[in-house]
Amino acid sequence: MDLDVVFLGTSGSVPTARRGLAGTLLRRGGERILVDCGEGTQRQLLRSTVGLVELHEVFLTHYHADHYLGLPGMLKTFALRGRNAPLTVYGPPGLVDLFGVLRRIFGKLTYDVELQELRPGEGVERSDYRIFAFSVEHGVTANGYCLVEDPRPGRFDLDRARKLGIPQGPLFGRLQAGESVALPQGGTISPEQVLGPPRPGRKIVLAGDTRPGREVLEAAREADLLVHEATFASEEQARADETLHSTGAAAAELARLAGVKMLALTHLSNRYFGPEIAREARAVFPRTVVPRDFDIIDIRFPERGGPRLVKGGALGRQKEADAHGSDGSAGGGEEPHGGGGDSDDPELRRDPVGARNGGRAPSETAG
Ligand SMILES: [Zn+2]
Ligand SMILES: [Zn+2]
């Protein structure tokens, strides 16, 4: 089962020329789940290889404007396309009140929007995974979300299966699915005879906006991927404390304590371009990446290599060249990126995100 995370917007509070506002798409098999929908998210989807697909579920982390203002427009677009399928929006308490206001903007729709407020610990259960909310520390009612898959069957022991005289073919699959099977030559084999102990499923944690908090640490334990905000660099630690945001280094320390496989930092203040945040964070936790818009993190199973960043993975070749401009970095869409922390890292040599658009502006704290 494919599982990945598409970064549609990686800027905090205000967009930059290169980074859009919060929007992250989880793709699992054929499912598409959007987490946050900042202004411009529908266009980011249109520009990506994902397209503006008919989403059935949107999760909002909190109600700062940089996380939901894209939603009314996107809901309206769906209606203009004559959509019938219902859509569910999940968010922390306050969602119903928010939609009381938003409905005046998007008006009548051609489909039903169901609203479901989630308190910490609540979520949705699916046949083989669940998504639940956990509390974060951002000064307003806010959720982080954790997607966790059910444990997988243990590894299939091929040698043992052959020794037991099981013919290669469909019986293998049935055993792997947990079924006992009858052998053509007589006798029954139970799954435990050929399967190792169950293996954990994958876990993705999206913390949303927060200072590095205990609840995030608990939720993130042993996660394959923690997506954490890094609004500021350490030079602005005081501001991070004051506004209940995080620095890259503090998020990295949390990732280290939680034992995650990869940390992805997002929600950068427009004062930062990425490399400086990455450098600080990697000094603490080397497996840190700072995705740009349209990057993908492919959550492979540990035996297939674990999570990896695919730069520009959600861009077509032409679009990628367009988006990455003339900084010589275009064309590396499939470049694997382990997040090593040395100065040879291409991420650190790149043209800073948004650097061509007038340089640094004072960072914002709202959102
Ligand atoms: Zn924000
Ligand atoms: Zn916020």
- What is the count of DSSP helices, taking H or I runs of 4+ residues? 11
Evaluate the radius of gyration: 22 Å
Q: Write down the overall mean pLDDT.
A: 89
The helical percent reads: 10-25%
Q: How many E strands?
A: 18
> N-to-C terminal Cα separation, in Å?
35 Å
Bound molecules: zinc ion
Question: What is the SS-derived class?
Answer: alpha/beta
Ranges with pLDDT <50 over ≥5 residues? 325-365
In what range is the share of β-strand residues? 15-25%
H/E series: EEEHEHEHEEEEHHEEEHEHHEHEEEHEH
Q: Major β-sheet, in short? A: 9 strands, mixed
Structure described in brief:
By secondary structure, the protein is an alpha/beta fold.
How would you sum up this structure, described in words?
The chain has about 375 residues and is α/β, with parallel strands linked by helices. It is built from 11 helices and 18 strands. The strands form 3 sheets. Strands 6-5-4-3-2-1-16-17-18 form a 9-stranded mixed β-sheet. It is globular and about 70 Å long. It starts with a strand and ends in an 18-residue tail after the last helix. The protein binds zinc ion (2 copies). One zinc ion (ZN) binds next to loops.
